[in-house]
Amino acid sequence: MNDLVNLLNHTDMEAVLTDFGRRTRQEDPIVHFYETFLAAYGPKLREARGVYYTPEPVVSYIARSVDALLKTRFNCPQGLADSSTITIPNYDPSLTVKGNPPYSGHSANKSDWIEGLLKGKLPDGSKTDNYYEVDSKPLGERNPKYLQDDYVKFIRFGQWRIERSGGGILAFITNHGYLDNPTFRGMRQSLMQTFTDIYILDLHGNAKKRETAPDGCKDDNVFDIQQGVAIGIFVKQPGKSGPAKVYHADLWGTRAQKYEQLFEQDVIITEWQQLTPQPPFYLFASQNVDLQAEYAGCWSSLDIFPLTTTGIKTHRDHFAVGFEEAELLNRVIDFRNLQKSSEELSALYKLKNTRDWKIEPFPFLRQNSRMAHGD
Q1: Vertex 341, ends 339 and 347: CA angle to 5°?
Q2: Residues 61-93: b if buried by 16+ CB within 10 A, e if exposed
Q3: Among residues 27, 191, 332, 345, which one has the fewest Cβ atoms lying within 10 Å of its Cβ?
């Protein structure tokens, strides 16, 4: 640390700042250093904590949009400057919740409180909106694990806080998977019931889907990540109730083009398309409905294939696949060895427990080994 302080003391900061942020639009060198430091020193910690610096154009768009909405919808002439003084008769002060929550499919935030909130249960036993239901019926999915993503929990928490206050604005940039993935249909319906206006600016950039712009040109992410993202601005005006009006817009192109557009626009001047989300999916994305009636008249794949399972998963291939017989045999021997704890096996083979797969008790290998030893 002393070496670092000494280095910074002898650094020409004026020279550093001359071209700083030209590519990433990161205006704060200290935050930039922190993110880069974690990427090299603790990449797993960085991923677990969601430490990805939010580009300045994204922050600018969100902040100016919230400011404009406070002025036009909440009778707050100074916008964010005096948002802390906004009060609603018979309610707590209105809230503005802004941020870039972490995206983590394997969430470490597994408290009973947030689990209950996702599933429509409050600590006092009362009921609230349930992301695992749609039209008051269970989703009926075997493994709706994507609802456990950290960003979903942050949205649900912000939604709950604004419900309690009676009004407010939730503005996040997150994974854009919740916009059209069928698993999130209960979440989308719940958000529509809570808020009065919803604005979705899909920034795309999904390398996993190999997204390209409608004209065939390159489509970049605003972050250095593969997952596509979207800005969601959820407004609950005091004294009004849902279902919300849902507005959607797309932003395609290179990173530089997206940054430029985000700096120039806000929620007021963005060219929105109003959506009419319909059951059973309540999509927050534009859709060609010309053939919807014909599609709805076709057989459901669930009727054709009554038995279903998730697709092939490859995240344990490093353990399940070997190129030598002895290599695989040694792994089996290790798992039959009752002297080795679950923790040892997890560290040895870099395996993690999930909801449906756990090292202990490991199916049949360790169980049969115990039976053979008379346990």
Answers
A1: 125
A2: bbbbbbbbbbbebbebeebbeebeebebeeeee
A3: 332
Are 96 and 168 in contact by the 8 Å Cβ rule? The answer is yes
Percentage helix, strand, coil for the chain under 3-state DSSP, each rounded to 5? 40, 15, 45
Q: Are strands 229-236 and 168-175 parallel, antiparallel or unpaired?
A: antiparallel
State pLDDT tens for residues 243-256.
999 999 999 999 99
DSSP H or E stretch at residue 2: helix 2-9
Q: How many CB atoms lie within 10 A of CB 121?
A: 16
SS3 of residue 369 by DSSP = helix
Question: For residue 273, what are the β-bridge partners?
Answer: 248
Rounded Cα gap, residues 103 and 159, in angstroms? 17
Length of the chain: 375
Task: Report the amino acid identity of residue 232.
Answer: G
pTM: 0.75
Ordered DSSP codes for 336-364: H-TTS-HHHHHHHHT----SS--STTPTT
What's the rounded Cα separation, in Å, for the pair 190 and 147?
A: 13
Residue type, 375: D
> In this structure, how many other beta carbons lie within 10 angstroms of the beta carbon of residue 12?
8
